[in-house]
Amino acid sequence: MKLFAISDLHVRHSVNRDAVESMTARPDDWLILAGDLAEKPEDIEWVFATLAPRFAKVFWVPGNHELWSGPKSDLKGVARYEHLCELAAKHGVLTPEDPPALFEGEGGPAYVCPLFLLYDYSFCPDGMDRTEALAWSAEAGLVCTDEWYLEPDPYPSREAWCAARVELTRERMDSLPADVPKVLVNHFPFRMDLVRLFKIPRFVIWCGTKETEDWHTRWNTRAVVHGHLHMRATDWRDGVRFEEVAIGYPRHWKQDRGIDHYVREILPGPDGPDRGWGGPIWHR
After folding, report:
1. What pTM value is reported for the model?
2. What CATH number has the domain bearing residue 245?
C-alpha cells in the first residue's frame, strides 16, 4: 500500500476532466487531492464520485477555487466549505474536519493530516500590512480573482478566517501522538521560500501564511504536500520533504504523458538529500 497525491485538477477544462476520467485505479493505495478540483460543487462532487471508488482511501483539502462563490450564491465562506465537506463525506472522502487517518503501508506508519489554512497576505516583504501588500502586488498589475469571489463569511476578512483555521489546526495537531510521524497536507504552500512564481512573483501574497513556516519542525513530520503553484517540485527543508503536486491548467502539463505520470508518490517516496536527492527537483 502506497500514499499518492495530486492537486489542481481544474476539471472545468475538458482536457483535465477527461484525464481524471482516465486515471488508473489503485485499489490498495491512498490518494490525496490537495485542492482546486473545480469551482462548481457539482464538478467537485464529480471528482469525488469518480476517484473515491478507485482508491482504498481518498483525502481532500479545499483550494481557493472551491471556495469561490458568486454574488447571488446562498453558500459563501464557511457555509460553502461545510457544504463541500458534506459532499466529500457522501463519497467517503476524508476532509480537514475528519480525524487524521493512520497510514500503515510502505513508508508508514504516519498520520495523514488534511488541513485547511487559507492565507493572510503575510507572504510579502517584512513590515507590510494587508493594504500595503495588496498595493505592492497591484504595482505589478496583479490582483487575484479571490478578491472578488472568495468570501470569508461570517469572518470579517480572509485573514481573520485564516487566523481562526491556524489556531484550530494547531490545537488538533498538538493532540496527536508525538512519536508517530505526520504527513501535512494543505492546498497553499507552508513556506514563502517555496513560492517560485518567476513571471508573477508578487502573486505570492495569495499563497499562504508565515504562521506555518516552522510547522514541518513543530511536529514529527515525514512529508508536506501542497499544490496551488502549478510548479511541480520536490524540496527539502530541515530534512523534511515538501511536495508540490499540482497539474494545473491544460497548458501547465503534457497531455501526451497522461495523468498517471503526475500522480506523485508521497509514501514511501524518494530517498532524502543525504543520498543525493537535492532540491528543488522540478517535475515536468
Report:
1. 0.96
2. 3.60.21.10
